[in-house]
Amino acid sequence: MSAPRGNQEATAYDVIVLGAGPVGQNVADRARAAGLSVAVVERELVGGECSYWACVPSKALLRPVIAVADARRVDGARQAVTGRLDTDGVFARRNRYVTDWDDSGQALFLKSIGADLFRGHGRLDGPRQVTVTRDDGTRHTLTARHAVAIATGSRPNLPGIPGIEEARPWTNRHGTDSSTVPARLVVVGGGGVGVEMATLWQGLGSQVTLLARRRLIPRLEPFAGELVAQGLSESGADVRIGAQVTALRRPDPEGPVTLTLDDSSELEADEVLFATGRTPATSDIGLDTIGLTPGSWLDVDTTCLVNGVEGDWLYALGDVNHRALLTHQGKYQARTAGDAIATRAAGQPVDDAPWGDHATTADQHAVPQVFFTDPEAAAVGLTAEQAEQAGHRIKTVDLDFNAAQGANLYADGYRGHARLVVDLDREILLGVTFVGPGVSELLHSATIAVAGEVPLKRLRHAIACFPTVSEIWLFLLTAYQRDQKTPETAPA
Ligand SMILES: Cc1cc2nc3c(=O)[nH]c(=O)nc-3n(C[C@H](O)[C@H](O)[C@H](O)COP(=O)(O)OP(=O)(O)OC[C@H]3O[C@@H](n4cnc5c(N)ncnc54)[C@H](O)[C@@H]3O)c2cc1C
Ligand SMILES: NC(=O)c1ccc[n+]([C@@H]2O[C@H](COP(=O)([O-])OP(=O)(O)OC[C@H]3O[C@@H](n4cnc5c(N)ncnc54)[C@H](O)[C@@H]3O)[C@@H](O)[C@H]2O)c1
Fold first, then answer.
1. How far apart, in whole angstroms, are the C-alpha atoms of residue 296 and residue 347?
2. Which of 3.30.390.30, 3.60.15.10, 3.40.50.300, 3.40.630.10 is the CATH number of 375-484?
3. CB of 217 within 8 A of CB of 196?
4. For residues 443 and 449, what is the distance between their CA atoms, to the nearest angstrom?
5. Residue 410: C-alpha distances to residues 284, 413, 447, 478 (Å)
6. DSSP H helical segments within 192-308, as ranges?
7. Taking CB atoms and a 6 Å cutoff, what residues make up the pocket around ligand 2?
8. CATH code for the domain defined by 9-47+103-155+280-361
9. What CA–CA distance (Å, rounded) separates 255 from 282?
10. How far apart, in Å, do the first and last CA atoms of the chain sit?
């Protein structure tokens, strides 16, 4: 191995950002807007996993699948949608949204805000210092006057099952960048990636088998996973709950892969995709040089300062802090921390009280999430179980969507379910879950109600238009009010 060469003179910036995913770019933007100088270090593509192998390509691929399913739920339209999806057209659409994995546009964004991009692998080298190693082995040292923001994201977590390397499994990478449809695909893992990948590849023509250890999308209310499992089964996927993979083999790298399951049965497929969670991208970023453990999630305070590091200079944002592995939540952290960095740099006190300008309070109370399955599953805040565990006195209100005429007009025989989790002491919403076609666009109304802690007495005055799917709000709130009235006060 050749010795590292290059410029040993350090370049000083106010802020150094490690990782140019959506989160890194947002904190850079916020710090630049406050007049701070910013260096951004990226070793792969500016835009990160989200832009090229996660959110964007998966939704670009899923949308045609869901659009066709939506059309088939409407009499008159159904008859017009008789053919198969044009997979070449679907892949071309995906390629457009990922700009053919060319990041020059996003690099230009960094330039436009006045941030300097350093391409290469960044590692901390003691407090406030980062070394960037380029592909050709040359190095550059950067120092930070005010802050280093770690936004290096996460990688797929592959379980240590015998034969997993030989099987050469897909992860979210091939699951989103492949332009060929495997005839038989096994998806392992029933979280967000698993259910979306199963929906997508079944929709594109694979025969999908989804193996989940327990219920699907287990962080949501149980009915969400049940309805998503039902939708997948109806689309032709084989959903097996409680199934575990114990071994894999693929003696011919070009041939099929065989999975052994915990009941000793075997399953053959053309590809296997592991969607078994994420691991932080912190194993090789020099955490040991500042007394932290390489490969660990980074524990942060409400302003996203890393706990246990002296001097208030190290921030961790996005997936890497394990608060909520979602782009929108990471970007919220980036905006908040970017402002906190600028405020501290100016020697001003931060406003880190709950819901303050420099607090990421929504991470605890109002994280919204949509799974783009068929039906869609959307939730914000706490599930009933989480609310009870947190000690709240709650009431749940449950309704099927077909209570609302708007839902039936949207899709004939609309199938979906909604739940409110009400805090009985404060009469506000702690959580809301919607499952059904088109509910992704309904979720923000619930997010406003939960984050705003809008009293139910006032929410009653937020009228949904007739006839929209949103009318479900009227029926949910009315059902709650009726239940709360005692027989004596109820109208005769
Ligand atoms: C299949 C899939 C679908 C998803 N869909 C959604 C969705 O619809 N909505 C949603 O909100 N979330 C979704 N997510 C989650 C979302 O992708 C992540 O939460 C998001 O990418 C996190 O952003 P980030 O900037 O923290 O990390 P990333 O997007 O992972 O970016 C981190 C960047 O840091 C770089 N980097 C890492 N280490 C170094 C280093 N040492 N030096 C220099 N650069 C480095 C990487 O190359 C990368 O560019 C999905 C995830 C997956 C896997
Ligand atoms: N639309 C979206 O917002 C969206 C879509 C996809 C992913 N994401 C986010 O990305 C993150 C990663 O998603 P993910 O699905 O990879 O992780 P996850 O942690 O949500 O789910 C992983 C699943 O794999 C299972 N699992 C773990 N080890 C296993 C094993 N050995 N065998 C079988 N099953 C196993 C777990 O029980 C879990 O249900 C999540 O936080 C998710 O919310 C978001």
1. 31
2. 3.30.390.30
3. no
4. 10
5. 50, 9, 22, 22
6. 192-203, 222-234
7. 159, 188-194, 196, 213, 218, 244, 275-278, 325-326, 369-372
8. 3.50.50.60
9. 35
10. 87
For the chain, domain boundaries? 9-47+103-155+280-361, 164-276, 375-484
Q: Taking CB atoms and a 6 Å cutoff, what residues make up the pocket around ligand 1?
A: 18-24, 41-45, 48-50, 54-55, 58-59, 121-122, 151-153, 172, 176, 193, 281, 285, 318-319, 325-328, 330
* Ligand lying closest to the C-alpha of residue 55: 1
SS3 category, 145: strand
Among protein residues, the one with the nearest Cα to ligand 2's atom 28 is 276
* 189 CA → ligand 2 middle, Å: 6
Q: Could you tell me how far CA 175 lies from the centroid of its own chain? A: 15
- In sequence order, the 6+-apart residues with CB closer than 8 A to the CB of 183 are 206, 207, 270
Question: What is the CATH number assigned to the segment(s) 164-276?
Answer: 3.50.50.60
Give, in degrees to the nearest 5, the angle at Cα 379 between 55 and 93: 25
Please list the rounded mean pLDDT of every run of 10 residues in the chain (492 residues).
Answer: 51 98 98 98 98 98 98 97 96 98 98 98 98 96 98 98 98 98 98 98 98 97 98 98 97 97 97 98 98 98 97 97 98 98 98 98 97 98 98 98 95 97 98 98 98 97 97 97 66 40
Q: Which residue's CA lies nearest to atom 19 of ligand 1?
A: 326
Q: Is the ipTM of this complex over 0.95?
A: yes
**Distance (Å) of CA 460 to CA 81, 397, 442:** 40, 15, 17
Fold matches, 164-276 and 375-484: no
- Asked if 303 and 358 count as a contact pair (C-beta separation under 8 A), the reply is yes
Cα 328 to middle of ligand 1, angstroms: 11
